[in-house]
Amino acid sequence: MMRIPCPYCGPRNASEFAYKGESRARPPVATATAEAWRAYLYVHDNPEGWVREGWYHRAGCRRFLRVERHTQTNEIRSVEPAGRP
């Protein structure tokens, strides 16, 4: 069982959250090509190691979070509100 330490609700089971994918830069809306959007939406690195991901606490505070998680062990190094830079 993976537990995510929500900064608002405390540690919760991962089943309360919705995984939103890797955190990465969005292409510029006005100038991005169809290929750039396709790559942004469907092509993912899926690395082994530490990654920054977006999660949504759907069964709790209903906020978006930025989680740093190890993909092999599911260890979580940090969690913060997604709105912060």
User: What percentage of residues falls in helices of 4 or more residues?
Assistant: 10-25%
Structural class: mainly beta
Give the percentage of residues in beta strands. Answer: 35-45%
The largest β sheet comes out as:
4 strands, antiparallel
* Distance between the amino and carboxyl termini: 29 Å
Our Rg estimate from Cα atoms comes to 14 Å
According to CATH, the fold-level topology is Folate-binding fold
Largest sheet, order of strands side by side? 3-4-5-6
* Mean pLDDT figure: 93
Would you count the extended β strands for me? 6
Summed up, the helix count is: 1
State the low-pLDDT regions, or none: none
- Domains, number: 1
Backbone shape:
globular
CATH architecture: 2-Layer Sandwich
Overall CATH class? Alpha Beta
Order of helices and strands: EEEHEEE
Query: Looking at this structure, what is the CATH superfamily?
Result: Folate-binding superfamily
SSE blueprint:
Layout lengths: L2 E4 L3 E4 L4 E5 L11 H9 L7 E7 L7 E7 L5 E6 L4
Antiparallel strand pairs: 1-2, 3-4, 4-5, 5-6
Brief descriptors of the model:
85 residues; mainly beta; Folate-binding fold; 4-stranded antiparallel sheet; two-stranded antiparallel ribbon; 6 strands; globular
Give a description of the structure.
This protein has 85 residues and is mainly beta. The protein has one domain: Folate-binding superfamily (Folate-binding fold), CATH 3.30.2270.10. It has one helix and six strands; from the N terminus they run βββαβββ. The protein has a four-stranded antiparallel beta sheet, with no helix packed on it. It has a two-stranded antiparallel ribbon with strand order 1-2. A hairpin with a 3-residue loop joins strand 1 and strand 2. The longest helix has 9 residues. The chain is globular, with a radius of gyration of 14 Å. It starts with a strand and ends with a strand. 7% of the residues are buried. The mean pLDDT is 93.
